[in-house]
Amino acid sequence: MKKIIILILFCLAFQINYSQQTYTVNGESLELKTEIEGKLDLLWNVIEGKFRYFIKTEDGSIIELKNTKDDNNDYQEEYKSTLSSLTNGMPTDKLKLTLYSIKSYLDNYNASVDSNYTSTSTARKVQLRLGFSGGITNNPFVGNPDNTKTPMLGAELEIFEANSLPRHSGFLQARHAFESDDFPYSTTEFSLGYRYRFINKETFSIYGQVKLATVNFSDFTFLDESDMEVNSYETSFDIPFIFGVGSDIKVGNNSYITIIYGELFAAFLDNQGNFSTDIAIGYKFNL
Asked: Which of helix, strand or coil describes residue 6?
């Protein structure tokens, strides 16, 4: 465990953002990333916890896209009029102040005014993230008198909207909890779930999750009335609503270290008397 923690800290300490450059905007020195290069460039970054977007014109002027609030706390959406004036009136009715939306908008504009422009936006609106993990579990929803912890391995495919920082995602997960000499029970589980990132930063996120449906293939040994060992194989389908929490820590442009407490409690499964121990550490990357 100590080696894994040291590895995480090492990766975080030496994370490098290759596309950042320093700009001076209205007397403010800012480190900005270049997302699009064309007739109009798109620059952006997360500054003091806030997303900020800028347009760089052909003459080198840099204009910030703003969305301030008035005295009634209503958003003014100044970014729409700014972009409309820069793009000769290109419609902004459905434009949102998100990286994905602005990127698509500018991509369409640059392509319309420059036949040599190469589009950088992706046509797909759904992104996939593949992950692998390993940890320990005490199988909290199974009878475990000695509270024995056993190893587990998992893999998952996470599905979310192609956005700069999506809060909502779904996942398909497969994991296997191994048996031990002290606890002759093992199970392979396939689950369908949902995540919500209530803390959602550029470099890390913290989320809650719920497993909505599970299928388990279990293998266990027990003593019958004659104290004879009996092997049993069981398949079960449940809609358990198992809740957990986790965190993704960015260690590269498209990769993350993940820490997850997968099974805290369930709405429709009984805890069998032991406080849940179900912790895994893993690695994820965008496909």
From this structure: helix
Cα dihedral 52→59→27→31 (10° resolution): 40
| Cβ burial 123-154 (10 Å sphere, 16+ → b, else e) | eeeebebebebebebbbbbbebeeebbbebeb
What's residue 279's pLDDT?
A: 97
- Quick check: 229 and 245 in contact, CB under 8 A? no
**Helix (H) or strand (E) run with residue 238 in it:** strand 229-238
Q: For domain 126-286, is the CATH number 2.40.160.20?
A: yes
Q: Which residues belong to CATH 2.40.160.20 in the chain? A: 126-286
> Residue 227: its pLDDT value, please?
66
What is the Cβ-side half-sphere exposure of residue 257, based on CA atoms within 13 angstroms?
Answer: 13
Find, among 91, 26, 103, the residue nearest to 61 by Cα: 26
Q: Does 16 score more than 70 pLDDT?
A: no
Categorize the per-residue pLDDT at 119 as very low, low, confident or very high, splitting at 50, 70 and 90.
confident
